[in-house]
Amino acid sequence: MSTLDEAQSRVADLVAAARKAGADAADALYVRSESTQVSVRLGALEDVERSDGEEIGLRLFVGSRSASVSSSDLSADALTALVERAVAMAREAPEDPYAGLAPEEMLFRGTPVDVDGDDGADPAPADLRERAMAAEDAARAVAGVTNSEGAGASAGRSTLALATSHGFAGAYRTSGYGSSASVIAGTGSAMQRDYAYHSARHLADLEDAATIGARAGARAVGRLNPGKLPSGAMPVFFDPRIGGSLVGHLIGAITGSSVARRTSFLLDRLGERIFAPGVTLRDDPHRPRGLRSKPFDGEGLPTRATDIIADGVLTGWLMESASARQLGLAPTGHATRGVGGPPGVSATNLYLAPGAASVEELMADVKLGVLVTELIGQGVNGVTGDYSRGASGFAIRDGRIAEPVAEITVAGNLKDMFAALVPASDLVFRQAVDVPTLRVDGMTLAGA
């Protein structure tokens, strides 16, 4: 694994070479990743994968023309040819008045925030195999489980370094671990499948493998013999493991590129209340050990905690420099990128603040409703906000979770859904996007 100093030296040297070759401005990104993945099925080792690779990407500007290139060959000759090719490409590219590096006066300066993203652990493949076995054994031990799709465990580490020609240089390292299990319950045409997983930056934070497996088994068995619900309007509850998808649709609608292209259903809602009073959605890039924590963004700008939704009000767009220039605004420190191409936009560790009522209290007045635990398909229109997705989960009858249901569709419009959304009090920080159980009234269910 490259040291952080070595990684920073690589990108600094590449930027210097680009400037020497005729670029007016440039930035370079280096990424190295190591990972080990072990999978088992039916008590036997199925696969062990090990990957170890490094890539470097260069983006340069000749006037308002730009080009991006990348390479996994980091030899001196390969990088020299990379720079020459990028300069030649940029000179032939169309002009783009919005392209360019981030504003120099906004660059990150000083000591990076320590987000505790790397624990230094290096579990052996045998340890990962033991964890995967424990997860599958626990899942298969659940009464009613009849088969297994397998279980897995993984460990990895990444190094990222970024340098720009106008003064930014930074690097950081992250570790990551995961454990999962997927099993089948029932037989014949009555079979049902479900899964469970957990990911963490520190190995010590990774959930016990047997707990993960037991959850996968219980979920699969709980889905056996599903029924259907009658069609009509009713309260829809979104389980925390899939409720974060609603937040994802919101983020997609408030990125600078969507707004600049006028392809967002929230185009004219900046500064307006789009959720109920009291609803808060926070982006927290500095959460210790957070799955997406980082001290600076993909353009070298500082990251900071932001209430994207404050007391129900949409506070701003998420922008990298190009879309910010197009909108006449400032970038927000949400740029993200790979080694190839220009920066995009992404939030970091998102969470919807919990409400005051428990799940049981939110369900208490529901005569007939549904708790959705799985969503199917991609039926969301980002321009209009129309929402229609296949789903399965559990009926809610007289305020209590009842029988499993499948082959249903839940539909509405995201603007109406956001306005009606009520969060429960059961928020747990577990994923990159965390939400409590969500109640949304007024949706339409298509069932039997």
Offer a concise description of the structure.
It comes from Sphingomonas naphthae. The protein has 448 residues and is an alpha+beta fold. The chain contains 9 helices and 19 strands.
**Average of pLDDT:** 96
Order of helices and strands: HEEEHHEEEHEHHEEEHEEEHEEEHEEE
Shape: globular
Strand order of the largest sheet: 3-2-1-4-5-6
User: How many angstroms separate the termini?
Assistant: 56 Å
- Please count the beta strands (DSSP E, at least 2 residues each): 19
Major β-sheet profile: 6 strands, antiparallel
Helix count, DSSP H or I runs of 4 or more residues = 9
- Beta fraction: 35-45%
Count the domains. Answer: 2
Radius of gyration from the alpha-carbon trace, in angstroms: 24 Å
Descriptive overview:
- The structure is a single chain.
- The chain has a six-stranded antiparallel β-sheet with strand order 3-2-1-4-5-6. The protein has a five-stranded mixed β-barrel with strand order 7-14-15-16-19. The chain has a five-stranded mixed β-sheet with strand order 10-9-8-13-18, covered by helices on one side.
- It is 23% helix and 36% strand.
- The chain has two domains: 4-221, PmbA/TldD fold (2-Layer Sandwich), CATH 3.30.2290; 226-448, no CATH class.
- Helix 3 packs parallel to helix 4 (209-222).
- The model has no long low-confidence stretch (mean pLDDT 96).
- With 448 residues, the protein is an alpha+beta fold.
- 42% of the residues are buried.
- The chain is built from nine helices and 19 strands.
